[in-house]
Amino acid sequence: MSDTSSVLRIVWIYPDLLSTYGDQGNALILRRRAELRGIKTELVRVLSSDPVPVEGDVYLLGGGEDRPQILAADRLRSDGGLKRAAERGAAVFAVCAGYQIIGESYGDDADNPLPGVGILDVRSGRGETRAVGEIVADIAPELGGGRITGFENHQGRTAVGPSAVPLSRTVTGVGNDGHTEGAYQGQVIGTYLHGPALPRNPHLADLLLRMRVGEIPPLPPSWGETLHQERLAAAL
Amino acid sequence: MSELPLRAQLAAVLGKGAASLSRATGRGDGSVIGGRIALKVEPDLLAKLARGRRLALVSATNGKTTTTRLIAAALRELGPVATNEHGANMPTGHITALSNAPDARNGVLEVDEKYLPRVLRDTNPAVVVLMNLSRDQMDRASEINLLAKKWREALALSETHVVANADDPLVAWAGMGAHYATWVSAGQRWKEDSWCCPECGGHLKREPEPHWECPECGMRRPETTWAVDNRTDAVVDPYEQRWPLRLNLPGDANRANAAIAMATAAAYGIPPERSLPRLQEIRSVAGRYTSVVTDGVEVRLLLAKNPAGWLESFAVLDPPRVPVILSVNAQIPDGKDTSWLWDVDYTVLRGRRVFVMGERRTDLALRLETDEVPFEVADKVSDVITRLKAEQPDITKVDVIANYTAFQQIRAAYGRVQ
């Protein structure tokens, strides 16, 4: 947690631009799983007209349509707060359009490359076909392994550069390129599992929490685990 | 429509035959199959059937079917009306509606958002009615900014008159493409899809409600001539006259639909004193808002397909002691992605007895658990009623909110109630 307080600050970046489908779910589940362990939280919603605070613990970025994505990337680059926060060691969890723009570059609707925020070594462009549907992937063993389940809806294809590592290997679905899904670099994670990726994968939510607060006690199973199992069974 | 060319007449007749067969065999209401067969025989059939009529096209994310029904009721002041009242809102359904009413000079067609530009081009309507745009089934639908842009471009190429909700920035921006417009202040409860300027992407200033404007490019809400006043349950017309609504359909969303319908009727020359009484007669629309009485309990059915719709439904729930059943499926017509459940705030349900049902009830369960709303899991509406009656024999009412196929399943269980 931040040196200055004992509160876990969850910063939701630009819900006015990057909140296409259930992205609020990631913020709500992080907050709940922290509070169930007695960790106080503060959820900060940062609108695109406001500066991004640097002292957050976990930064969340959601999905968005083409134009809001470009606006969000431009504003984040000129603001600089997210990059400084990442350099300070904050955890970042970015989904779909958010995943693409925290990378080195991403493609606009005509697939012209545009510069990203540059906190994750990935480059994204547009694929031939849209990837829509349930996706299942196995998380990198270095991150503790385990299966993740989600829903993807994107036309992006992402190449992971040498400084980053794929977050997972796809079992079904497309992800980055049909083989790997997402990427991470230090405490920065990006994924195509859109919307409520953390509600559907409680262990992924806990991974993010551990990045900031260290070891945390396990929680009794809840509907999150039931949903996780149910979606895995439905997709496989 | 005896002036229809022979081939078009044949197409229309063949379509009707298939529709009857579909109804007789219990496979559907016939709207889609009939139109599909007719289109094969005559690809220009929709344009031919529309010729010489004064049509209104109705499109939005939510409230299309209800508003179409309201407008059709008002237009009956002028005689028979051609309309697709079963909600078959693609060109096949439009063909069926128009072939079924060959002598109706006036018509009102509900149009799927994606098909609006094409149907606008084919039918050359007198009026296009636009109410709202919000996120809906994105695994199969277009992005709404893109939709609004296509609406705007199609309207710019036509001579049609738009009746549109000025309070929804995306809809207003699309409507501004038209050469003629009537602006209605119909309200907007769900704002999560319109924080950004549709013109330049700037962060919209949205105060004081319902005003909005873009500080960056200057785009702003158009001046309105009609307005809903939810607080007093009234519509204010262009002459500043207040019309108490007293609808038999619940909620602000239906007040908005009624205001839009009254403004549309006025564009056809029907004044509020003649349109409103006809709107007040409508009690349910294709099963929506219907109550069925089962085992002495009145079960009210509310259809809600997306976050904006759920928000509107929560606002019309009966007082807190009335239990509510939430039912969610994720079949193709619903959208296979249930992520939108996380966009809705459920905390308003605290203090109410809540049941979750449907194929995706586990998604609902986790969502409610996260918002700390106690709930129970159920398989069927009748099981809930049995359970409630056992504990509370004098129970009289239950509300049900369901998305598309979940709603249809419940409706079918009670004999396709209207």
The separation of the N and C termini of chain B measures 30 Å
- Percent range for β-strand residues of chain A: 25-35%
pLDDT average of chain A, as an integer?
A: 94
Assign the structural class of chain B, choosing from mainly alpha, mainly beta, alpha/beta, alpha+beta, or little secondary structure.
Answer: alpha/beta
User: Which strand order does the major sheet of chain A show?
Assistant: 2-1-3-4-11-10-9-7-8
Order of helices and strands of chain B: HHHEHEHEHEHEHEEEEHHEEHEEHEHEH
Oligomerization state = heterodimer
Name the chain pair whose interface involves the most residues.
A-B, 36 and 29 residues
Q: Order the strands across the largest sheet of chain B as they lie in space.
A: 2-3-1-4-5-6-7-8-9
Count of helix runs of chain B: 14
> By helix and strand content of chain A, what is the structural category?
alpha/beta
Count of helix runs of chain A: 7
The fourth-level CATH homologous superfamily of chain A is Class I glutamine amidotransferase (GATase) domain
Q: What is the number of independent domains of chain A?
A: 1
Please estimate the helix content of chain A. Answer: 25-40%
Globular, elongated, flat, extended or rod-shaped: what is the shape of chain B? Answer: globular
Low-confidence stretches of chain A: none
Any idea what the radius of gyration of chain B is?
22 Å
Concise structural overview:
The complex is a heterodimer of chains A (236) and B (418). Chain A has 236 residues and is an alpha/beta fold.
